[in-house]
Structure formats: C-alpha cells, structure tokens
Amino acid sequence: MAVEVVRGEVVESVHRARAAVTFPDGTSWTLGDANLPTYPRSSLKPFQAIAMCLVGLDVTGPELAVSAASHMGEPFHLTAVRSVLAGAGLTESDLQNTPDLPISSSAREAWIREGRGPEPIAQNCSGKHAAMLRTCVRAGWDTASYLDADHPLQRVVRETLAEYTAEPMSDPSVDGCGAPAFATSLVGLARGFGALAAATEGPAKEIADAYRAYPEYVSGTGHPDLAIHRAVRGLVGKGGAEGVFAVGLPDGTGIALKIVDGSQRGRPELMVALLRRLGVQNVALDALATSPVLGHGRPVGEVRVVAGLL
Asked: Of 190, 262, 275, 296, most Cβ neighbours within 10 A?
C-alpha cells in the first residue's frame, strides 16, 4: 500500500504504509505486516484515559475530551487543561510534560507575541498530563512520580492497554511528552478502537462520547483528524506521531494504519480510502480522499492513495 505525492505530472514522493482492519466477529484483514510491534504514540490516549477513569478521574465533556487529546494549543484547549488542573488543586507548575509551543500557527504567534516561550501547558499532551495528575490526587497517589513506569497509575494504564488490544504489553520506552510509551501491533490497536467505539457503558463509552461531542478538543481547528471525525457519524479516532492513525466505528469495526517512514503526510487520505473500502460513503468523506499539493500558493498536484492497491 502506498500514498503518492504528485506535482504536475510527476510522482514526486511515495509513502509506504501498513494497516489492519478488525471486525466485530473477531476476523481481520491486513495490508503489509500489521503484526509488527509499533508505538501508537498518542493514538493510545483514549485507553490511557479509560485507565484514569477507572481509578478516579472525574471530568466530563470538553475536559474529558482534552484529557485524551493531542491539542493544538488554541485558547479553548488551554482553558480546558487549566480547568482539569484547578479542579484538583493543581497548577501548571505541576505538569511534567515536555515544554513546547502551541501547534496552531495562530495560537503560536499570539503566544510568542505575549513574550512566552516553550511551556508544558502549551505542549499538545498537556491535557493528558493534567488528567494523570488529577487522577493521582483523587486516588491518593504521589504526583511527583506519575511518569514513572512502575507508578500505580502507569501500571493501570498498562493493564488497560493489554485488555483492549488483547496483547501483552512489554516494558515501555518513553514518549515525546515524557509518559511511558507502550508498543502493540496495528491489529491490536484496531481491535482496541473497535471496542472503544462500540462501548455501551463505563469509561470507554464516556470517552467515546466525549470524542464524538467535542472532537475539536481532541485535535484542533483545521486538523484533518477533526474533518474525518465530523464526516463520519459515530466514528472515534485518534492520530499519533510517526504516521499512526486509528479509528473505531460504532459497529465495533476498528482500523489502524502507519505510514512506514513516519510521515504525517498521506495519513488522512489513507484512512479515507480504508473507510470507503468498508462501505462508508458520503460527500464530506469523499472530499477528503485527496489533498492538494501547492505551487506558489495554488494547487498543482495532489496527495493520493495509489489506485489498485486497495
């Protein structure tokens, strides 16, 4: 499977990909070796949030969505993150995620104009870290060591990931934000998202509903993940670093993909192609099947999934 980047009449770049689709009856199909160990990175955030809810996280609505988000640092994102912290008597100084600038270009420009540099609150994982801290407060656990792999919270995260992916979790590495980074296969990741999207009760349903109701808190204004969320009724999806993207459908079908070279380019187009292959069709989704390649500010080509490989 591949995604082509075409400029004029020339294929300028090609991105190879792997993918897995799992079905409610337990069957699956794969493209490439979808059983290779893969770091889903931020695509694991909804399952981390499930673990937190199981042991005391007590937020709802936008605050729950941002607790499982890779936000773009827009003002409404940071307001929600600060609210998660304040509700547990915490402040930005308690965050231990990696300092960064907002991803959103407009938010970043405004942030810099205010004379501010990289800060943990502006980094895209600050919602997850705020929720982890609040969970520790509610559970009576140490907040200073919440990122340690053997912390009680991270042990619950590990158990929850194993449950939803139906795969054992090996010892983690470290994610870009400082949290433990667990590996699974794309098959396991797809299986987890199918279960998440089909959940009818408990924390999984609460998080899936928050994703559906407040998808702008999960990513941000103009993000391709947001467009796919809004295009497919009932879909629950989360992207991750290094070209990972996973979604679940309400019937329990799960899809997970990875651009092999780690590029984010081609990720949404490939997901749209997989959804269409599964019979998900509508005008909004069809409009996302390709994206333009620009030359001097105008479209001169496109990013597209290679015809015939799906």
From this structure: 190
The secondary structure element, H or E, covering residue 283 is helix 283-286
**Residue among 294, 232, 235, 304 at smallest CA distance from 267:** 304
What amino acid is encoded at 15 in this protein? H
Express as a percent the part of the chain with pLDDT over 70.
Answer: 99
* pLDDT exceeds 90 at position 183: yes
Task: Give domain status of residue 206, yes or no.
Answer: yes
CB-count exposure of residue 166 (10 Å: 0-12, 13-18, 19+):
middle
Domains in the chain, number: 1
pLDDT at 308: 55
The residue whose two tokens read 């290779």 is 36
CATH of residue 160's domain is 3.40.710
Whole domain around residue 128: which residue ranges?
2-305
pLDDT tens digits, 78-122: 999 999 999 999 999 999 999 999 999 999 999 999 999 999 999
pTM for this structure? 0.97
In a domain, 293, yes or no: yes
CB-CB contact of 1 with 270 (8 Å): yes
Beta-carbon contacts of residue 110 (< 8 Å; ≥ 6 apart): none
Instruction: Work out the burial of residue 302: count CB atoms within 10 Å of its CB; fewer than 13 is exposed, 13-18 middle, 19 or more buried.
Output: middle
What is the spatial distance between Cα 15 and Cα 260, in angstroms, rounded to a whole number? 7
- In-domain check, residue 225: yes
